[in-house]
Amino acid sequence: MCAFDAATNRIILTGRTFPLRRMSSSTDPAILTALRQQMVASQLRARGVRDERVLTVMARVPRHEFAPAPCRDQAYEDHPLLIREGQTISQPYIVALMLEALALSPADRILEVGTGSGYVTALLAELAAQVFSVERHAVLADPARDVLARLGYSNVKVIVGDGTQGFAECAPYDAIIVSAAAPEVPSALLAQLAEGGRMIIPVGAPDSQQLQLIRMENGQPRTTLRELCRFVPLISGPP
Ligand code: SAH
């Protein structure tokens, strides 16, 4: 038997208990599932994330599959993970906040800017109907595409390109998520947001930004300022 015991923050394995830290390098699927449950309980639910669909998919999607080998054993820890090209997979809590803010429906079509490892792409693929994800580095987009295909996500298209221009071919989108920091909201992205659509994007200076939630109402963007945050930069043009 393997289960996560929230009361003691321990994994119970065939009647014995182990501290979670010692289990993190395991490849046993039951232990990895328990680590995800612990991540959801202590990092997300305990901090106020309430969207049950978001919590469910974050308990299901194998974050370790998207982490590079040297930091795979940290995949369920409470911090960002370094991937190639100096980029990062965001901290689970920030990912959950952004997904919750978008209030996604199963029928939604999504644009993601900054595929990175493909982890958030996988979550989006579980939460919505179709995901178009733009990444400027082919060395990140190619392995992300491979792992998403290996895990069976068929409603995802990963595109190599400049996400500040969005992906006009398949616009408009019900939701847009930008996982890199912009000095200001790119106008092309606003133009590709459907009526009633939502966009979440970190906006500000390179060392500190604020999440902006933008909702398109009667053709006008309405902005709500959300949490302070720190993301890698959104960079226009080819690498
Ligand atoms: N959400 C990703 C992490 C994104 S890190 C994950 O789960 O792994 C931000 C990503 O944005 C990086 O991969 C970076 O290369 C990409 N990026 C930066 N500027 C971009 C642009 N103009 N167009 C597309 N991708 C961009």
In short:
The protein is α/β, with parallel strands linked by helices and 239 residues long. 28% of the residues lie in helices and 30% in strands.
CATH architecture: 3-Layer(aba) Sandwich
Order of helices and strands: EEEHHHEEHEHEHEEHEEE
Annotated CATH topology: Rossmann fold
- In round numbers, the mean pLDDT is 92
User: Could you give me the name of the CATH homologous superfamily?
Assistant: Vaccinia Virus protein VP39
Question: How is this structure best described in words?
Answer:
- By secondary structure, the chain is an alpha/beta fold.
- The strands form three sheets. It has a seven-stranded mixed β-sheet. A three-stranded antiparallel β-sheet has the order 1-2-3. A two-stranded antiparallel ribbon has the order 4-5.
- Helix 2 (29-44) runs antiparallel to helix 3.
- 28% of the residues lie in helices and 30% in strands.
- Helix 7 (187-191) links the parallel strand 9 and strand 10.
- It is built from seven helices and twelve strands.
- The model has no long low-confidence stretch (mean pLDDT 92).
- The chain is globular and about 55 Å long.
- It has a single domain, classed as Vaccinia Virus protein VP39 (Rossmann fold), CATH 3.40.50.150.
- The longest helix is centred in the N-terminal third of the chain and has 16 residues, at 29-44.
- S-adenosyl-L-homocysteine is lined by residues 85, 87-90, 113-114, 116-117, 119-120, 134-137, 140, 162-164, 179-180, 232, 234-236.
